[in-house]
Amino acid sequence: MSVLPWQQPNWAHLCEYRAQNRVPQALLISGKKGLGKQHLAQQFAFSLLCVKPQDNGLRCGHCDRCLLLNAQTHPDFIEISPEEPGKTITIGQIRSLVTRLTLKPQFESWRVVIVSPADLMNKAAANAFLKCLEEPTERTVILLVTDKPAHLPATIMSRCQKLAVARPDKATVVTWLKQQNKELLPDDAMILYGLAQGSPLLALDYARDGTLALRNDCFKAWMDIAKQRRHPVIIAEDWYKLPESSLIFWITSWIIDMIKCRYPIKSDWLYNPDLIESLQELSLQLELKELYKLYDLMLVNRQRLNTQINKQTLFEEILIKWFELNPSK
């Protein structure tokens, strides 16, 4: 496998580390969700472990070390991640890693550890992990991968070199999406780019799992509330079963677009260019000040997602406020 198109500058930087024999003992790879950071970390790890990497720096795929990697049995390749979805990386996992790193690598090349998502180490695990960074072991490279570098302790951040994966431009993402999904319409690719906030892998997931159709259904319900054809509490009862982070983003994007529609603007500057006619209609009916208040409410509720708040209650508050903003017919 190769690196993804928008990762070429990052890959060149990683290859430079190796060419200059300056491979960092600890490297933090960060960037927004859906940019393929885990893939990039794995390709670098495989390259370091390969006996005869290609001229472009990628592993050969045929040597005995690559065959071990393919079989997921390479003794010098270690991956640390939560043992269950939604859980943290525990101190037990890190203590086991520290013990394993006291031994020498089994082969003469590197030993590589990938910790992902690194921000999910709990406090005790993060404190124990410092030992790996403060007392580096022979020929060991640690790659930390995260969407949220600010959630890592400063003591860990300060001991790592940094590599940030940037979001690609719209044209790059749209072209790549159409290459991955030949049946995807160009207009849908543009819409998916906005829904995924520029993250290509997230946009591709959305193309495959019917996210666009779900978003359209939710927007129809949003319009029905505005026209007072459906009750907000009934909609909230349906919505709390859906992915709440996506819903919060969709609603926020509709509000931002309605605010933008109050000014001369091109449709491709909107998150939802395909909904411009409905958004303009809604925008003209509402006071700009009230739209900004609703936007502020969405920012508050985005923070509440990480708490124990009842999700149905959260959506009821948003939808009732939206219902009240729209004049009765």
List the helices and strands and how they pair.
Layout: H1 8-19, E1 26-30, H2 37-49, H3 64-70, E2 77-80, H4 91-101, E3 111-115, H5 123-134, E4 140-146, H6 154-157, E5 161-164, H7 170-180, H8 186-195, H9 200-209, H10 211-226, H11 232-239, H12 244-260, H13 276-285, H14 288-304, H15 311-325
Parallel strand pairs: 1-4, 1-5, 2-3, 3-4
Helix pairs in contact: 4-5, 7-8, 8-9, 11-15, 12-13, 12-14, 14-15
**Termini distance?**
58 Å
E-strand count: 5
Number of domains: 2
User: How much helical structure, as a percent, in the residues?
Assistant: 40-55%
Binned strand content = 5-15%
Secondary-structure content class = alpha/beta
Which fold name is given in CATH as the topology of the largest domain? Rossmann fold
Which stretches are poorly predicted, pLDDT < 50 over at least 5 residues?
none
**In which order are the strands of the major sheet placed?**
2-3-4-1-5
CATH homologous superfamily classification of the largest domain: P-loop containing nucleotide triphosphate hydrolases
Number of helices: 15
Can you describe this structure in just a few lines?
With 329 residues, the chain is an alpha/beta fold.
Q: Would you give an account of this structure?
A:
This protein has 329 residues and is an alpha/beta fold. The protein folds into two domains: 5-164, P-loop containing nucleotide triphosphate hydrolases (Rossmann fold, 3-Layer(aba) Sandwich), CATH 3.40.50.300; 210-325, Zinc Finger, Delta Prime, domain 3, CATH 1.20.272. It is 53% helix and 8% strand. It is built from 15 helices and five strands. Strands 2-3-4-1-5 form a five-stranded parallel sheet, with helices on both faces. The protein starts with 7 loop residues before the first helix and ends with a helix.
